[in-house]
Every structure is written in C-alpha cells, then in structure tokens.
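Researcher: We're teaching a course module on how sequence relates to structure. For the next exercise, students receive a sequence and then see the predicted structure as tokens, so they can try to spot secondary structure elements on their own. Here is the exercise chain.
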Amino acid sequence: MQVEQAEPLGELSESPGEEQADGLELAVIGLGYVGLPLAREASAVGLRVAGLDLDPRVVEALNAGHSHIDDVSDDDVRGMRAAGFTAYTDDACLARAQTIVICVPTPLSADGGPDLSAVTSAVRAVAGRLRRGHLVVLESTTYPGTTEEVVRPLLEESGLRVGQDFALAFSPERIDPGNTTHGLRETPKVVGGCTPACAARAAAFYGKIVDTVVQAKGTREAEMAKLLENTYRHVNIALVNELTILCRELHVDVWDAIRCAGTKPFGFQAFRPSAGVGGHCIPIDPNYLSYKVRSIGYEFRFVELAREINAHMPEYVVRRAQDLLNHKGRALHGTRVLLLGVTYKPDVADQREAPAVPVARLLREREAEIAFHDPFVPAWSVDGVAVPRVVDLMAGVRAHDLTILLQDHSAYDLPALADEARLLFDTRGRIFRPGVEAL
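Model: And here is the predicted structure for the students to work with:
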C-alpha cells in the first residue's frame, strides 16, 4: 500500500474491547451504492464484515445472496456471505466491530441546504455502541466542518474522547457506478483524521482495502476535497452546456469544436453537453459548499450560476424538440414522443437526479404523449404517474413521431435507431448524419 501523508502521525490504541472478541473487523452503516462496494472489497481481502441498513428488504435480499445495486452482483454477495458477511437492521452489531464506516445518504433539504438527518441518526446509533479502541469514519458527502462540528460532539456524548479513547476520520467516497476501470481498490482513498493518531488508524484500515491512501491535513480538507472534485465537474458541465446554446445561435458545431479542442495534449479536459446533470453527486454536492459559504456571509457565485445553467437544460431540450417538430409542420401538443435512456449515465440502472424526469415533466405540460425505453429500467414513473414502456424498441421508434436519445446505453444500436426513427433528436452527440438533430 502507498500512503501519502500531510504530517507525522501519532498513536492510538487499536485494541478492541471484550465486546469485539468475536473478530468482527468492520461494520458498514448504509448498504447502498457506497456502503455495499466497501463491504464487498473488505470481505474480499479477508476482513469479517457486518452491514447495517434500515431497509428490511435490502437486508433480507443481501442475506439471501441478492444485490440491489449495479456494481455489486449476486455472485459478489454470495461470496461475501461465504466470507462471513451478514446484514442487520439491529445496530447491536456496531459494538462488536473494530471499525465503523458511515455511508448514509445526504440529500438536500427543502431549503436547499444539506439534510444530515441520516448522518446524525447513524452517529447516535454509533454513540450508543461506542467502545474504547473504535475507529469511526464518515464517508457521506457533506460540507466542511461536519465531522468536527456535528459528528464529534455526538460521539463524545458517550463520555469517550476523540484521539484518546477512539479514532474519528472523514474519507470521501469516490464510487463511480458502472466504472469498470477505476473501482474502489484502484481509486486513491483520501482520509482526514481529527488528530494525527486518528489519521493513522484510518490510513491503516483503508490500506488493507485500496492500493493508495492519500492523507489530508485534517477532516475539513478531506471534506472539501470531495466538494472540489464535484464542483469542478458541475461548473465545467455548465460551461459547455451554455456554450452549446450559444454555438447554435452562432451556427457553430459545438461537438466538432469540442473534438478539436480535445486534441490539445495539455491544459484542456473535454466536457460534453447533455440534457442536464444527474446522479447523486454533481447536482447535489456543490450545494453543500454554497450552503457553508452562505453561512459565513459569502456567495459562491460560480456554483449558483452553474446550477442555474444546468437546471435550464431540460427546458432547452424540450424547446429544441418543439422547434424540430415545428420545422416538420407538427405541434408538440398531441405528438407521440419516445424517450430513450432514463438513467443518469450509460449502462447503469441508477436513476438518481436523472434529467429524463424534468424532460418528461415538461413534455407532459405541453401535452405530448410520452413513452420510454431503457434496457435497465423495467418500469418508470414521473410525479407518481407511470410512463408507458416500449417493449419492442425498433417498433416503438417507428411508431413515435419523435424519439429523443437521452442516454446512450451501449445496448442501443445507434445507426439502426437513426435508420428507423421518424425523427431523432440526439442529446448525447453520438449520431452524426443527415436527418438526425444533435443537441
């Protein structure tokens, strides 16, 4: 294992208490897109792992050998079970583990700030089971200061002290669903501890699971690193999305301009336009930073502008679709529109924050008749109303007045779609031929 550290490390006892005598080395709280891959990798290197999740359906499925996320297969889960993994809804398992990692969701609240209710609930559960020698790590994305200002005080209500009795650290998750090249092991793991001793414990733990551990100066730096990564993408996606709108007015092929710029071997990274941003990170995480900055009397104007531009893209896509139909002498009202790909990225089933939802909503508001197809999504609804699913893709494409490619799953035969569609609007920049409208 390679460890890159910011400062000398201290020492903190790793001795488990009597309650840990059964050898349980890791308990993961939250068995979703972040927690379950972590549990899998820990099991794979020989650690004895338990998982805690509030959803009894998830727990029952995992204990029966079935996965509920893209990146962990049923075979993976069966291998985990054979290695001793068990999922629980009861937090009693926390007391038996040497290390506890919190991987619960941190969505946005109604006022646009971070909703830490799942984090605080998990931390209180940990506090009730905390023992001397425990290592507690928060992986849930949040604003800088959360570990020190929210997590630490709740844990210390137990009477135990960080850096003396137990170790506390933050390590931002870097899971990229569907990425087969950079998995958890291959992606460097950033860790920041409340004390040098805490950092040492966290680095030693993750060093068993990943190839490279990068030590941050502290928890705030580790928290900020995650927000910086996703804010960088959020802002650059907004840049190219706005550029797309401007290029159309300037009669410039934005896709060709991006292709040409991408040949520069330094100083440029290509981002590509789309119907909007999706997933659990980019549309949400930069808001944590805006929230924290506002709390000290400043505005993060780059993030606010990026959010405004990216949120406008579904409306722009629908307007382009309407213009395309008008050019063909048709109105959007009453037109049959087929949406292809309703997940937030190619070749995964993950629909979190997918731009297909606002696109569908806007089409309905204009009284278009919508249907969808997605090889990873058997059923889909928008605002509680089911959207009809096309079973025979090519027959569906031929039957609809307009087909909008929102996600370019590899299962789609794009040339065949272009041949069969009455009218095709490609928002992914994958089909360049006469008669196909590109975003």
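Model: If you want an answer key for the exercise: Residues 259 and 270 are 8 Å apart (CA to CA). The first helix runs from residue 35 to 44.
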